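Data card: per-record layout.
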Amino acid sequence: MLGSVYYATFCTFLFESATMSHDDFNDYAKESEALDTNYVRSPRSPRKRRRVGFMMLVFLFMTSAIATFGWFGYMKYIPSREYQQPSYASANPIIVGGVLADQGALIENGEVKLPLPVLESLFEEDKPIHYESATGTIVLTSADKVLRLKTDALTGILNKQPYKLAIAAEATDGIVYIPTAPIEELYGLKVDYNPETGIVTLLKEGETVQLAESAEEKGAAIRTSPSIREPYLLKVALGESMRVWEDNEGWLLVQTSQGHIGYVRDKDVKLSGSETVSEVERADPFVPWKLDGRKINLTWEAVYERRIDPAKIGEMPGVNVVSPTWFELTDGTGTIKGKADSAYVKWAHDRGYQVWALFSNGFEPERTTQALASVESRFVMIQQLLAFAEMYKLQGFNIDFENVYTKDKENLVQFVKELTPLLHEAGLVVSIDVTPKSNSEMWSVFLDRAALGRTVDYMMVMAYDEHWAASPKSGSVASLPWTENSIARILQEDQVPSNKLILSMPLYTRIWSEKTGTDGKLDVSSKAVGMERVKQIIEEKKLVPVLDAAAGQHYVEYTEEGVKQRIWIEDDHSMKARVDLVHKYDLAGVATWQRAFQTPSIWNTINEALSK
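The structure for this 612-residue chain is written out next.
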């Protein structure tokens, strides 16, 4: 601002000088001469004093202006020669994306150990590294591998095989440090360690970084900030390469071959290509099932105390997967109770059905918390499931954990991450049941659908119980708009791929009883019935179903012993409408709960709708 004032004053003086008349100029010259010869003896006139004062002011302004412009020029065009030695809080600083990490690395025998907080921020979305402080256990998971390590141990378990380490993981000052070898093997992380400077640089698998080289004969100055007046850290020799992390209006944030980071003028370097981190060689992705263009058509077989007699099960055209409810968690240590039946498996295989046995938590939240809480109890469950699959020749498992505390959300995801690679290694399909999204803590909020969807092969959306058994209001078990919204929300909000999503449809409905109580309020109760029972009621009472357009299904009502009865019917119409949603959203297929509720003709209806 001061420079601007000086400049304006100087211009005013020049303008006044240029417009001065000849006589005024002579007067000015005479006054100047008088100043030189008679300033002591001759008293000045008021006019002369004003002229002298004006000239002195002009002189001061001109001097200040020149000094100001000189200072500005110096600041803008003359680089600082001040040197600042690079310094870091850690002996082995870590650079990620041109940014200094909060924690440094540890070096043992020339090998690098990385702090867990840095790795967690690097793989924030997938969260593949889990640490259990109580036992000092570290679990690393990928699409096809599960590695279990312990701090201060040189051996671990990779899937089911021993795994040896050159240096052990350790916990120091409350921070866990993990050797880079398994991180590089599982996740393709590139770890550059410079022994001279101690700097460690991390680049993710597949990451591409711009490269540049110094174009200055005297060396390109790397400065602390994007300004030539900032101190320089070092000078990069002509032709020396560096990584470019950021472009900042004429300045580049770069990292030298020694690992130091700083700013260089873009005119002092020239771009020289790029560097891409190579990807780790991995086995081909697991293919759950080659359906040859067909959709999955699964039905659950509810197995209670008695075994199912396959001879009493009729034909089910189009069904290609059966899921008997055979396995259940029985305690907090991970013990699983089984009710599997080899005869049922043989019957299913003889008909070309795959068997994806259901594994439930028994809907018991306390035992679920305990079983999910530790690496050991989770591994106990996994080992049993693998043994059951081999014993009964299963093709997969369907995980059905419900009524779970929200605090167990992450542990459930961790269990599925640890389970899936091992089941895949055994050739087994992994699916999980989820409810439509709602605010229910125990039945919906605990499900991290996005994380689960990235891990499992299939996700069954149990699109029923819109109006549940104890609902205070009568209504459809699964109206069409509610069903579609349930699918759309998971696809859009949780980004679960459509080819993993299976629409689960009810083969049951509820008979709602409504009566006015003594207090004048409407009392509502219900009971679940299968499709055959509803058909019998309609025939016995000679009812005529009408279409409830809002629900997208047929509806009847009648009075029995003075109590109003209401039924939203599951039939060919409702099934076709739901299968249309499968095609609309290109879902993987359908599932039905449960087989015993069906009417025989419904299988043809579903099959034809799926096949069209």
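Known properties of this structure: Confidence is low (pLDDT under 50) at residues 1-42. The longest strand covers residues 508-516.

See the next section for split statistics.
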